[in-house]
Amino acid sequence: MATTPPVCDFGWPAADFTLPGTDGRHHALSDIRGPKGMLLMFICNHCPYVIAVRDRIVRDARDLEKLGIGVAAICSNDAESHPADSFDNMVKFAADAGFPFPYLHDADQSVARAYNAACTPDFFGFNADLQLQYRGRLDASGARPAAADVRRDLYEAMREIAETGLGPPEQIASMGCSIKWKAA
């Protein structure tokens, strides 16, 4: 079922974390942040919304890193109920996609809860002071990629954040599959 996250809570501070990555290392928030800001993406391996834009995520991450934006992706889905999102499958997914950023495993879902992540993909764009400035969509793609010349909403917002420290006042929420929460 498609889910839409809430709008950007401008100025909300990034919550600290340390998570294992598919590269065999642990990554902390301080390792990921760039001199101009940071993009955290909550994604998973099986979501058709993520799969549809995987190549665009890689493209935008590479372009954002050139602007001084640190990038990481986090999978928080319950791998017991959704085995496609297991850590081993995350390693394969990241390798197949050629992720140029850390892909982190939030097995206990504490980071997703701290960020109030709602769906995959869910994008959190922070300025250099790690204050939230963007919580919107990648572009007009849904479960299928939009046209190749579609406006790059995420990239343009993060470029603005890198240049000014502020995100655009008007943002269109992302849409995707709900986070697969563990049973309480």
Brief digest:
With 184 residues, the protein is of the alpha+beta class. The protein is 28% helix and 21% strand.
Explain how this protein is built.
With 184 residues, this protein is of the alpha+beta class. It contains five helices and ten strands, in the order E-E-E-H-E-H-E-H-E-H-E-E-E-H-E. It has helices at 29-32, 48-66, 87-97, 110-115, 153-164; strands at residues 2-3, 18-20, 26-28, 37-42, 69-75, 103-105, 119-120, 122-127, 132-134, 176-178. Helix 2 (48-66) runs parallel beside helix 5 (153-164). The longest helix is centred in the N-terminal third of the chain and has 19 residues, at 48-66. The protein is globular and about 40 Å long. The two termini are 20 Å apart. The model has no long low-confidence stretch (mean pLDDT 96).
Biggest sheet details: 3 strands, antiparallel
Q: Which residues form runs of ≥5 with pLDDT under 50?
A: none
Q: What is the CA–CA distance across the termini?
A: 20 Å
Q: Which structural class should the secondary elements be placed in?
A: alpha+beta
Number of helices: 5
The whole-number mean of residue pLDDT values reads 96
What are the main properties of this structure?
5 helices, 184 residues, 10 strands, 21% strand, 28% helix, alpha+beta, three-stranded antiparallel beta sheet
What's the structural blueprint in terms of helices and strands?
Elements: E1 2-3, E2 18-20, E3 26-28, H1 29-32, E4 37-42, H2 48-66, E5 69-75, H3 87-97, E6 103-105, H4 110-115, E7 119-120, E8 122-127, E9 132-134, H5 153-164, E10 176-178
Parallel strand pairs: 5-6
Antiparallel strand pairs: 1-10, 2-3, 4-8, 7-10, 8-9
